[in-house]
Amino acid sequence: MKFAVTSKGDSKSNSLMHKVRTYLQDFNLEYDEDQPDIVVSIGGDGTLLYAFHRYKKRLDKTAFVGVHTGHLGFYADWTPDEVEKLVIAIAKTPFQVVEYPLLEVIVRYQHGGRESRFLALNESTVKSVEGTLVMDVEMRGEHFETFRGDGLCVSTPSGSTAYNKALGGAIIHPTIDSIQLSEMASINNRVFRTVGSPLVLPAHHTCLLRPVNNVDFQITIDHLSLLHEDVKSIQFLVAPEKIRFARFRPFPFWKRVHDSFIAN
Ligand code: NAD
Asked: Per the entry, which co-factors are needed (predicted)?
């Protein structure tokens, strides 16, 4: 089996990365940065987001596991003290895999019929850079509302505990194939009206945004931020691909929610 190890880049994560790499090689596993079967991400959730984007072209072949060198993460749930146990578990393949849904984002441009496709593990946001963002929101091809405000966030179930949660969105269990649309400071008065509640869409239901005014806006995909011009529409859908996490012990999602937000 081939493996890769990614690090947040700080000294603690780097030294743990070297340790994990040496241990796994001692077990005769092959280090392969380009085509790993398993990626051990060391740092935090952000490090796993980077690893996901690095290996997003081979999601059907690569599984991920996260170690946190700071606070407990949603994707990074192993502690530095547990890496020896983790290494032994990885060496004793085959391992169990759990799959989580991803978000597909398709940006279509006004000219030339161009489009770009992105995958998000947490969420994609559309935010005004200056002034009020005005977007027509379509659900399954039908006009739903005209949004006016700071922005909109579309999250995956596993991303529902991240930015989405800060926007008052619901926490969605990752076994539910869905995406969630939540608002950032919408303008609501006698003239302008949005639904106000976060909306959860099942697989195959598209949500499409069409810019109405000429305000510059920013599209984010997880930690990545892209400034877009000439955008005709942005489409969101549950992606056909899934991310695969290597599971070596039970750590139920609701326990992770409890330990992260209530107590540990
Ligand atoms: P970062 O390091 O500042 O991460 C922000 C925090 O989000 C960290 O504490 C991280 O552990 C946590 N986080 C990431 N994914 C999570 C998840 N799925 N569930 C629960 N917590 C999660 O920034 P980064 O490393 O560049 O990560 C980008 C992410 O930061 C974005 O995907 C977005 O979800 C999040 N974010 C959150 C807010 C907010 O809560 N107001 C604002 C901007 C971005």
From this structure: a divalent metal cation
| Ligand 1 pocket at CB < 6 A | 44-46, 49, 73-74, 122-123, 158-159, 161-163, 166, 222-223
pLDDT in tens, 83-101: 999 999 999 878 999 999 9
Domain match, 107 and 209 both:
yes
- Looking only at the bridges linking them, the beta strands covering 38-43 and 2-7 are parallel
Tell me the per-residue pLDDT of 157-167, one tens digit each, with 9 for 90 and over: 999 999 999 99
Boundaries of domain holding 226: 102-240
**Residue 215 and residue 107 in one domain:** yes
91 and 107: one domain? Answer: no
Using alpha carbons, select from 80, 76, 5, 13 the residue that is nearest to residue 40: 5
**Domain tally for the chain?**
2
Distance, in Å, from the CA atom of 45 to the CA atom of 73, rounded to the nearest integer, reads: 6
pTM for this predicted structure? 0.97
Structure tokens at 247: 């599971």
What is the CA 4 to chain-centroid distance, rounded?
20
The Cα–Cα gap between 82 and 50 comes to 22
